[in-house]
């Protein structure tokens, strides 16, 4: 009992002792300069004054740790500097209620269906337009929290039961694995694969073939697939379309060629450029005004009148 009394006395003295303020690591002009730089970073915000708070604190803490300070001291000093900068720029931290999703809903609208609340409900401080909306909101919140807890519990239970299951060997990749269902003798014979990928791969009966374009071997997904990728398929289709078109004569040099598409009229770009250039200059020349004057009877009559 004497030992217990001594322990309680020391404990009470320790609790009654005033906590000393942490010593400042950054002082004087250096502190003013650091606070000013942090203020410049915090002012560059888009959605909230506090969106750059964590990066500033982490950066200051890392710099102080590299200077030789301990992690707790660096963390406290970084927090003090950031909080001082936030207070200087006039940032006010929202309360817990202001951080909830329902806070964005106006007070005159229902927090569940967003319909306007009548005057009596607003006078009473109601947040829902009816008992049905209030019940739905409550049950939805309880359901979501319960579903989250149930999901975590199911995962924890599955991990515990999986550790108790016997070790099996995958029939496809020969990898050792454990499954929760394997603890039951009736399901143990049906557990043959370690994953869905191995199960899907074991069902494939098609052998590897060569790509019809790049000649690389691959395992097709279906019997009608001939190419290993979309690029090879596109190139192969273009090649087959060109091979199906009949040969024709070039409109300029009269050479025989196989067109790339059904509208090709020239064997090369050079031939097409020559024809296009000739047509262009011909149209341009035809569009220019002519200086030739044709003699008519009216022109002759005009000349005779001037001579008389």
Termini gap: 154 Å
Number of helices: 11
Radius of gyration: 43 Å
Main sheet specs: 2 strands, antiparallel
Helix-strand pattern, N to C? HHHHHHEEHHEEHEEHH
Task: Tell me, briefly, the overall form.
Answer: extended
**Percent helix among the residues?**
40-55%
Adjacency order of strands in the biggest sheet: 1-2
Q: Which regions have little confidence, pLDDT < 50, spanning 5+ residues?
A: none
Number of strands: 6
Strand content: under 5%
Average pLDDT confidence is: 78
Task: Report what the structure shows.
By secondary structure, the chain is mainly alpha-helical. Among the domains are: 28-88, no CATH class; 119-163; 165-203, no CATH class; 209-244, no CATH class; 248-281, no CATH class. The chain is 52% helix and 4% strand. The protein has helices at 2-16, 28-43, 53-66, 71-88, 119-124, 131-164, 185-188, 196-203, 230-244, 269-287, 297-307, and strands at residues 168-169, 176-177, 209-210, 217-218, 248-249, 256-257. The strands form 3 sheets. It has a two-stranded antiparallel sheet. A two-stranded antiparallel sheet has the order 3-4. Strand 1 and strand 2 (176-177) form a beta hairpin. The longest helix is centred in the middle third of the chain and has 34 residues, at 131-164.
């Amino acid at each position: 009992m004497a030992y217990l009394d001594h322990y309680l006395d020391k404990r009470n003295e320790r609790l009654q002792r005033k906590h000393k303020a942490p010593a400042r690591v950054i002082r004087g002009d250096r502190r003013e300069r650091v606070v000013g730089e942090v203020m410049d970073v915090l002012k560059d915000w888009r959605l909230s004054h506090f969106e750059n708070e964590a990066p500033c604190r982490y950066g200051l803490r890392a710099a102080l740790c590299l200077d030789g300070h301990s992690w707790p001291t660096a963390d406290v000093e970084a927090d003090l500097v950031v909080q001082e900068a936030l207070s200087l720029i006039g940032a006010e931290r929202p309360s817990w209620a202001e951080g909830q999703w329902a806070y964005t809903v106006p007070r005159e609208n229902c927090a569940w269906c967003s319909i306007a609340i009548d005057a009596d409900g607003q006078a009473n401080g109601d947040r829902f337009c009816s008992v049905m909306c209030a019940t739905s909101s409550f049950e939805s919140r309880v359901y979501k929290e319960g579903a989250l807890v149930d999901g975590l519990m199911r995962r924890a239970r599955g991990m515990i039961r999986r550790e108790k299951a016997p070790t099996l060997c995958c029939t496809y990749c020969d990898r050792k694995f454990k499954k929760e269902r394997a603890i039951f003798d009736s399901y143990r014979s049906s557990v043959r694969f370690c994953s869905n990928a191995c199960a899907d791969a074991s069902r494939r009966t098609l052998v590897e073939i060569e790509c019809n374009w790049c000649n690389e071997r691959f395992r097709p997904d279906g019997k009608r697939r001939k190419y290993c990728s979309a690029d090879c398929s596109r190139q192969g289709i273009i090649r087959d379309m060109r091979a199906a078109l009949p040969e024709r004569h070039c409109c300029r040099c009269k050479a025989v060629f196989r067109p790339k598409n059904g509208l090709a009229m020239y064997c090369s770009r050079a031939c097409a450029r020559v024809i296009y250039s000739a047509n262009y200059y011909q149209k341009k020349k035809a569009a220019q005004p002519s200086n030739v004057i044709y003699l008519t009877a009216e022109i002759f009559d005009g000349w005779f009148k001037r001579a008389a």
